[in-house]
Amino acid sequence: MLEEEPVSLHDAPTRSINMIEAINEALDTMMARDPDVVILGEDVGYFGGVFRATAGLQDKYGKNRVFDSPINECGIVGAAVGMAAYGLRPVPEIQFADYIYPGLDQLISEAARLRYRSAGEFTAPITLRSPFGGGIFGGQTHSQSPEALFTHVAGLKTVIPSTPHDAKGLLIAAIEDNDPVIFFEPKRIYNGPFDGYYDNPSKTWKNHPGGKVPEGYYSIPLGKARIVREGSAMTVLAYGTMIHVVEAVLEQKGIDAEIIDLRTLVPLDIEAVEKSVEKTGKCLIVHEATRTSGFGAELSALVQEHCFYHLEAPIERVTGFDTPYPHSLEWAYFPGPVRIGEAVDRLMKGY
């Protein structure tokens, strides 16, 4: 069920920072609290990461706790599995989600199964961070959204924040978790939210701080969704960058829709989804990944199973296309105001 954030957060001093800075703060906070937390990956040390998420941490904590790896994703994940079994809490970074595939065997066959194969004698407290999704014209090798691959694997948890506040709190919770967590960071909103209702890349980046984030330590429980805005006309399920796109479209159209930010895909807050859809009777699912076998398909099945007798219209999905990720045409690939708006109109008409 949905829960309020800890009351102490309301009294904590806050700063306006973007998602990159929030992630850096989360890593800094956990490294200070727990000497077993270590960071590894390509360029995470001296350079501070390709997006600067680990900037300054090697200088502060030393090369034994923040260190660069070879360009070998299988090796990065494999080393993290060994570190976790030894008792450390590694936070490996895969520079782009598109590079994660050489490490899949280590994640699926080793990290996800370690607790079960050892009858609980060993755990795999690994938090694998990676930028994902489009927005930087990275094309097919820097812009993929492979979250559905990991939601299919028993033993893995999958987290995708949409705000700096959630990025920090969820990352701290992920690092503290004793099971492996895939922590995908939507790079399109790394530097602050964009104008939202966009038709072209000139409106992508808006270099303002991004959001108020409490100072110091706090965590947001994994598996708890967030109501972005309450409404009664329909339920919109989304995560990551798409939260901001959907919110802008609905505001422009003046629709009283309820937006649920899933935040954690696995474990999923199905109770929050069910409660909302039972109230509104309509459901729109939006994500950037390809449509076929995307996580939206699982959401659609769950909504049908749990809320069938409350539905007043067919469930709608707006997603990326079933094509290789386009380079120059990525803004046509994204679920945007036109396609989302058309789906909203169909739901409002009840067909």
Describe this structure in words.
The protein has 351 residues and is an alpha/beta fold. The chain has 2 domains: 16-214, 3-Layer(aba) Sandwich (Rossmann fold); 226-349, 3-Layer(aba) Sandwich (Rossmann fold), CATH 3.40.50.920. It has helices at 8-11, 19-33, 57-61, 73-86, 104-111, 114-117, 147-151, 164-176, 241-253, 270-280, 295-307, 330-333, 337-349; strands at 14-17, 37-41, 66-68, 89-93, 127-132, 157-159, 181-186, 211-214, 226-229, 235-238, 258-261, 264-266, 283-290, 316-320. The strands form 4 sheets. It has a 5-stranded mixed sheet with strand order 9-11-10-13-14, sandwiched between helices. α8 (164-176) links the parallel β6 and β7 (181-186). α10 packs across α11 (295-307). It is globular and about 60 Å long.
The count of β-strands is 14
* CATH-derived architecture of the largest domain: 3-Layer(aba) Sandwich
Our measurement of the CA-to-CA distance between the termini, rounded to an integer number of angstroms, reads: 30 Å
Across the major sheet, the strand order is: 9-11-10-13-14
What would you call the structural class? alpha/beta
Residue share in helix: 25-40%
User: How many helical stretches?
Assistant: 13
The proportion of residues in beta strands is 15-25%
Overall outline: globular
What is the level 1 CATH name of the largest domain?
Alpha Beta
Give me the CATH fold name of the largest domain.
Rossmann fold
Organism: Novosphingobium endophyticum
Keywords: Oxidoreductase, Thiamine pyrophosphate
Pfam family, one: Transketolase_C
Cofactor: thiamine diphosphate
